[in-house]
């Protein structure tokens, strides 16, 4: 009899664990009322088709919004990461407003490969292939002689280069982000000073302000507390600049190594502000899109079937065009030598698209409705992904901690290696506020207003995708995203280190 009853505690514990996981899964599949109220309407098929037809007749180009670009300045420009999503739009907008190609230099790890930079004046812009984690290489790129007609002009540096590693959170594997995002920023600031730059504006990230989501809710809160108390802590957040005016948080108070490194880099840039070198930072909302190289829209377009647990998740997004506009708005303010003491200098500003946040289901409907390539979503239960993320993280950290085992334990590749607990802090409800950036310059803002809405920007990206794929017979072209680029840079760094040894 006693032997028969001895198994009941284990069975009861198992049943309670299952009940807990089911309840947590239910919470992770819901949208809090506070967030739902911010985005009360959903995109419809009619709205998407109407927007597509409108943009097909009148596409968004640099010339179509030229009046919104800050006026030309008699300056020369270095754009680190100038082949990327934000940096590329900065280059194109500089050219649109009349800056000669000879006045612009791209400093990047890779040559230009964006379709909109492979023709016209952009092809005449100087390019220097550089690894900014090397101080020597960065100084050399900045010191390269300019065209004689430009050499005497004042210099602006737009620092957009960075690596994005979305979910690694352990200091054990933070070296790569620190080398490029932190030390690379130090190198850029130092090289800018040596080159005589008097303006430096850096692209950071609104993800700096994200607090790690505490997924494991105490069981008693799930059933006996009010709904607002039952959610995982930080399950929805507002992305703003308030954290900048507080002491820098500890590493474990960031959701991953990437935002921790960007926060450190932001402090470096802002601390460098002086009359001789006026500085500031732009924090794009968490999801930046606007080119086949992005991870948001293009990430969905690249797949026929997209497994997802985020259809209900509400987030703010920002088009690369809008981010670039904000950089040029900031430069116009810092162009005055006395601006070092202005309320805008030496601080960050969050920017987002000029509309309420959307849900991922809006994005999925857009791709399914408008793209000529087939697309559908496959719903996954979030708790399954949560439970998988921990052994994946443990496996990766085990290989990192004991390098001698790396020959025996294969490296995880593809998207699975990014499925770690940190990813759930950016797959939650995130609403960005650019209230400060939108304030008039006279009131300490940038006077920023976005050129295009999320609906327009995402529709435009699908329109361009369709044009590039109309003759591909259903096959999808391959593009290098910022995350896959980071993987390539990391591999190159490991190879260089191996050869040096």
TrEMBL record:
InterPro entries: 3Beta_OHSteriod_DH/Estase (IPR002225), Lipid_A_modif_metabolic_enz (IPR050177), NAD(P)-bd_dom_sf (IPR036291). The chain crosses the membrane at residues 6-22, 77-95. GO terms for molecular function: oxidoreductase activity, acting on the CH-OH group of donors, NAD or NADP as acceptor. Residues 78-208, 246-366 form the 3-beta hydroxysteroid dehydrogenase/isomerase domain. Pfam families: 3Beta_HSD. Signal peptide: none annotated. PANTHER family: BIFUNCTIONAL POLYMYXIN RESISTANCE PROTEIN ARNA (PTHR43245), SHORT CHAIN DEHYDROGENASE_REDUCTASE FAMILY 42E, MEMBER 2 (PTHR43245:SF51). Belongs to the 3-beta-HSD family. This is 3beta-hydroxysteroid-dehydrogenase/decarboxylase. It comes from Achaetomium macrosporum.
